[in-house]
Amino acid sequence: MDARMDDNRITPEEDDEATRSSDAVCDREKPAERGDIEDIETLRKALADEGAKSEKYLSNWQRSQADFANYKRRTEQERGDVIKLANAGLILNLLSVVDDLERALDHVSGKLAASKWVDGITLIYRKFMSILEASGVSEIKALGEQFDPCRHEAAAHIDGEEGKIVTVIQKGYMMNDRVLRPAMVGVGNGHVSASKDEDEKEE
């Protein structure tokens, strides 16, 4: 019986070999654990880098979108200004036609005043003026007004109240809030003619 127990007993040599085997297994497991930790850190760093890239791309996209919106708004405004300038140039050229029509109607004799063709010209003139008014064109008030260099152009200084517009040589027009053509006027120089003084005394 003692002999059988001796056979199952672990010898010192076997004990040392088992210890070395266990240490070898631990040594093989440790590098694997370090490798896993390094992989996790690498993934975290890569994730942080990608997050920074995505934020940069988002910021650039938002900036590009804002720049495009500003460009679109500026382009629309410039196109509107070009259209307004084109309309203003066309209307400015047409004002000479208005002047001719007004002069023609002002010099119609009494015999021709009742003729149909004069009525036709008058109708054309009124339609013409209606179209201009619909485009934002309006006549600049001048006769009897205080001279305004922004809206009036002094062509002569004549007898009359100083600084007041005594006569209108050519009508002026505005388009919306912009002067299209200043009114050409005669401005009083402060001297009153003798005939005017006599008229005022008679009144």
- Helix content bin: 55-70%
**Gyration radius, in Å:** 50 Å
Largest sheet strand order: 1-4-5
* Tally of helical runs: 4
How would you classify the quaternary structure?
A: single chain
- Main β sheet profile: 3 strands, antiparallel
Mean pLDDT: 79
Class by helix and strand content? alpha+beta
Number of strands: 6
Query: What overall form do the CA principal axes indicate?
Result: elongated
Beta-strand proportion: 5-15%
Low-confidence stretches: 1-7
H/E element order? HHHEEEEEEH
Distance between the termini: 165 Å
Structure in words:
The protein has helices at 2-8, 12-106, 116-134, 194-202, and strands spanning 137-139, 152-158, 165-170, 173-175, 178-181, 183-188. It contains 4 helices and 6 strands; from the N terminus they run αααββββββα. The model is unreliable at 1-7 (pLDDT under 50). Among the domains are: 2-77; 139-203, Head domain of nucleotide exchange factor GrpE (Nucleotide Exchange Factor Grpe, Chain A, domain 2). The protein is α+β, with helices and mostly antiparallel strands and 203 residues long. A 3-stranded antiparallel β-sheet has the order 1-4-5. A hairpin with a 2-residue loop joins β4 and β5.
